[in-house]
Design brief:
alpha/beta, Four Helix Bundle (Hemerythrin (Met), subunit A), 5-stranded parallel sheet, globular
Length: 409
């Protein structure tokens, strides 16, 4: 599966700072110190109802991570998946009378278009669950052979008790986990499971649903969590730098994925830091596919909204914050974009070297994009009020905003 085109990232003078970011597993800010190649895995979409503003906010956050690393002169090895077969996708295809493969392909194509418009850097590897199945089956078989998995009525489950570190990603107690498991794709009430929290690794073929050859597992399809584990281990290995996604993935998805990988390899940790973006709401409720209260990037673009303004609307909120999309959020972003473009369109301006360092400092401090935007606002206001004599300043600002914030002026 191919990703989307990469926009050029301008090189800035000097060198950026190492990133300090909030790690869900420890509840603290940690300083990431990757080697020459920083490794990041971000969980991708289930391709229907793409791309809503919640998606965009999440992937914008991890685009900033990449840009901070690139500014430190590192390479970035970024991997993202597409859950192109799963119950919600099949249910949507049935509801709408569509072929599930065609639905997944069309929504993934739309997602690519939106990512390109927003100038989000593409992953090096963009892998669908279906294409990963040949690599998933051996991992499930190995977990079974290790005694970390068991069969129940033809389905194969992972035993959470096989990983001594289970629970360390989310830090939740068993009662909270059970509640979230029921809400987020698990089946804690199924009779016969060793532990209500045990997640499915391989679902035996169901009548009328797609299935694949699972070797000794029989025909079926993979569970949600093992999909990402197989892709991450194949392309990044254990101990990669950041596992990312929305905050609703901390449990069960990232918790289970970590335990799968740790049980498979006997190594710890799966990822050095677990980083989660906040949720975006509309009309007082979290944007949700099930509720249908969604704002789509593609719809805004069709209505003539500049994608750079959409990105500025996302950047105006700290990535970990839960926030609400409103008309005023977009209006403010459009106005900010206009002020910035006016400021850099002049032939000279106030010195910009200090601004570049302010941007670097803000983003290295847990991706504090709102502070970075405020710094540019101050420079633009000074430009409007006083002008300046530095002929290179507008170009420096334009390149810095592009390189670090992904906004083309």
């Amino acid at each position: 599966m191919h990703a989307w085109p990469a926009s050029e990232v301008p090189a800035l003078p000097g060198k950026g700072r190492d990133l300090r970011i909030h790690d869900t597993a420890t509840g603290e800010l940690v300083t990431l110190d990757p080697g020459p190649v920083a490794r990041i895995y971000v969980c991708g979409i289930t391709p229907y109802d793409a791309t809503h503003m919640g998606h965009a906010a999440t992937y914008n956050a991890f685009d900033l991570v990449q840009r901070v690393w690139l500014d430190t002169k590192r390479q970035v090895h970024y991997v993202q998946n597409v859950t192109d077969v799963d119950d919600p996708l099949l249910e949507r295809a049935t509801r709408d009378g569509k072929d599930w493969v065609a639905l997944a392909e069309s929504e993934t194509a739309l997602f690519r278009e939106d990512m390109t418009a927003l100038r989000l850097l593409p992953p090096r590897h963009y892998i669908g669950a279906v294409e990963a199945i040949p690599g998933i089956v051996p991992l499930v078989e190995r977990l079974r052979d290790l005694g970390a998995a068991y069969e129940l009525e033809g389905d194969t489950y992972f035993s959470v008790e096989s990983d001594a570190h289970f629970g360390e990603v989310s830090g939740l107690d068993a009662a909270a986990m059970k509640l979230l498991s029921a809400e987020r794709g698990g089946d804690p009430e199924r009779p016969g499971k060793k532990n209500p929290l045990d997640p499915m690794l391989w679902m035996a073929a169901r009548e009328g649903e797609p299935s694949w050859d699972g070797g000794s597992l029989g025909r079926g399809r993979p569970g949600w969590h093992i999909e990402c584990v197989a892709i991450a281990l194949d392309h990044l290995g254990m101990g990669f730098d950041v596992q990312g996604g929305g905050s609703d993935l901390a449990f069960p998805h990232h918790e289970m994925g970590a335990s799968h990988a740790q049980a498979l390899t006997g190594e710890y940790p799966f990822a050095k830091a677990y980083v989660h973006a906040g949720m975006v709401a509309l009309n007082g409720a979290k944007m949700s596919k099930s509720k249908g209260n969604l704002v789509f990037v593609s719809k805004l673009r069709r209505d003539g909204v500049d994608a750079a303004a959409i990105r500025l609307a996302l950047l105006a909120h700290h990535y970990r914050a839960d926030w609400e999309w409103t008309d005023s959020v977009l209006t403010e972003a459009v106005e900010r974009l206009g002020r910035w473009r006016a400021a850099v369109s002049r032939p000279d301006g106030p010195p910009a070297e200090a601004l570049v360092e302010e941007l670097r400092e803000a983003l290295a401090n847990d991706l504090d994009a709102p502070s970075a935007l405020a710094a540019v606002d101050r420079w633009a206001a000074r430009q409007a009020a006083e002008g300046g004599t530095d002929e290179g300043a507008p170009g420096v600002v334009s390149r810095a905003v592009d390189a670090l914030l992904g906004v083309a002026l």
